[in-house]
Design brief:
Order of helices and strands: HHHHHHHHEEHH
Strand order of the largest sheet: 1-2
Helix content: 55-70%
């Protein structure tokens, strides 16, 4: 019973941590502007990088990744140390909660926040960094080969394809390798909970960003999106 209570507390806390929009904070501090009113109006790392500057974008990307990584590290180190399906599902729910907080922050009335790319990458970096790097490399190749008219090949499409490919690469690597690297990090050999969690995270990203994906496919340049929904 205590495990369920601890899991619930971590999931709720992770949501509130995820709700901290560093793109808004960093942009406000550096420029005095509201990131939701400039560029493509998305309060995320990519828009910060394009509208405020590379340094600001890198800072926001790092902070957004840490929103998922920090609660996951704490939960893994002190509470969910096992290799059971329950442990890994709970950890994935903690990571997904941070992504949900980023995309639907409570202080904005649960309306549209950022796209959650960097926070999702933080989740992948915690669970399956090797598989994600492979997926990102493949995603980059796909973006540059098949998205020639898109303006943000690496800043957007490589990440989108990388996130989509990661669950597939996890399954493939599980079939061909089982190499333990350090802590819980391995190449292949992943618990069923990680496989399930990977597809749950992918589904969450599609649900939370369905409008953006449609808009990007319709207009790959997406310089300004005046119709971006607020809820």
């Amino acid at each position: 019973m205590i495990n369920y209570i601890v899991a619930a507390l971590f999931i709720v806390a992770s949501y509130f941590i995820g709700s901290t929009l560093f793109a808004y904070i960093v942009t406000k501090v550096l420029t005095g502007k509201d990131i939701r009113e400039i560029g493509n109006k998305n309060p995320g790392a990519s828009n910060t990088m394009r509208s405020v500057g590379t340094g600001a974008g890198i800072a926001v990307t790092t902070l957004d990744m840490l929103k998922a990584i920090v609660p996951l590290v704490i939960a893994r180190l002190f509470f969910f140390k096992g290799d059971t399906v329950f442990d890994w599902i709970v950890l994935f729910l903690i990571g997904m909660s941070a992504v949900l907080g980023h995309c639907r922050p409570f202080w904005m009335g649960f309306k549209k926040g950022g796209g959650g790319m960097a926070t999702t990458i933080g989740v992948w970096a915690f669970f399956v960094p090797v598989e994600f790097l492979i997926s990102l490399a493949l995603g980059t190749a796909i973006a540059f080969i098949f998205m020639k008219n898109a303006e943000f090949k690496f800043g957007r499409w490589a990440q989108v394809f990388g996130i989509v490919l990661t669950p597939i690469i996890i399954i493939v690597m599980n079939q061909i390798a089982d190499i333990q690297l350090f802590w819980h990090i391995s190449i292949g050999g992943h618990n069923l909970g990680i496989v399930i969690g990977a597809f749950l995270l992918l589904a969450e990203m599609f649900i939370l960003n369905s409008y953006e994906l449609f808009y990007w496919l319709r207009d790959p340049k997406d310089k300004v999106n005046p119709d971006r929904p607020t809820k």
